[in-house]
Amino acid sequence: MLKLEAVVIDNGGFDLKADFDVPTGAKVAVIGPSGAGKSTLIGGIAGFLPVRAGRIVWHGQDIGHADPGKRPVAMLFQDGNLFPHLTVAQNVGLGLHPDLRLNQAERDRVASAIARVGLAGMETRKPAALSGGQQSRAALARVLVQGRPLLLLDEPFAALGPALKVEMLGLVEDLVRETGATLLMVSHDPGDARRIADQVVLVTEGVACPPRDTAALLDDPPPALRDYLG
Ligand SMILES: Nc1ncnc2c1ncn2[C@@H]1O[C@H](COP(=O)(O)OP(=O)(O)OP(=O)(O)O)[C@@H](O)[C@H]1O
């Protein structure tokens, strides 16, 4: 269980407040207007932004002041997930060791993560020699190899075309099912939420609301969500 206990996350003077629980294994979409604080919420849980008040608790342990690498978190951003000068295998290997000194067992894990996302045979390619979808797959392989129980996605597929995005969401769904990870995914597309998320956290004006059932919320949106959905 991820517990956000009266948390205030500080993003350069902008405050994001959250006070709710996310059950282990839940798939949660984070939606809301631009500038409302979605990325701030994710950045605070990941450890890239400071927690000014309250606690972030994972399985009973306060992780709110731990270094990002010490948190049970793997994260994907919209851009910049891959280093252009490194091969696919090296980019994935970074998920295990920043210095890329991997033993045989770790190299095997990298190879199986690459195979799992459908990139077997492309281990030695650099990102520029991959399509957009293949780059997303490589980034997902790095998340997979880390084996972290909390997966945070901040609009990772926004730059992909609709069909490719659906394909990548399907892959995320499969990986989450296989690993039992808890998923929080920022998206601007309510269709993404319906496709993958059982619950939705609506973020408006610096407040992240407790998760609500996806269909119930989107079928009967409160005024703030209705304004956003248009
Ligand atoms: N480095 C910063 N310093 C000060 N304010 C910031 C900084 N980064 C973001 N903000 C402000 O924090 C607020 C929340 O930003 P955030 O990126 O979390 O919103 P968001 O909901 O993810 O928006 P979007 O959907 O446009 O990505 C915004 O008003 C933004 O201007």
UniProtKB/TrEMBL annotation:
GO function term, MF aspect, one: ATP binding
Could you tell me which Pfam families the record lists for this protein? Answer: ABC_tran (PF00005)
Keyword field contains Cell membrane? yes
Q: Which domain of life is it from?
A: Bacteria
What PROSITE patterns does its record include? ABC_TRANSPORTER_1, ABC_TRANSPORTER_2
Tell me the InterPro entries matching this sequence.
AAA+_ATPase, ABC_SmlMolc_Importer, ABC_transporter-like_ATP-bd, ABC_transporter-like_CS, P-loop_NTPase
SUPFAM superfamilies, sorted:
P-loop containing nucleoside triphosphate hydrolases
Keyword annotations: ATP-binding, Cell inner membrane, Cell membrane, Membrane, Nucleotide-binding, Translocase, Transport
Every copy of the ABC transporter domain together lies at 2-230
Fetch the PANTHER family from UniProt.
Answer: SPERMIDINE/PUTRESCINE IMPORT ATP-BINDING PROTEIN POTA, THIAMINE IMPORT ATP-BINDING PROTEIN THIQ
> What protein is this chain from?
ATP-binding cassette domain-containing protein
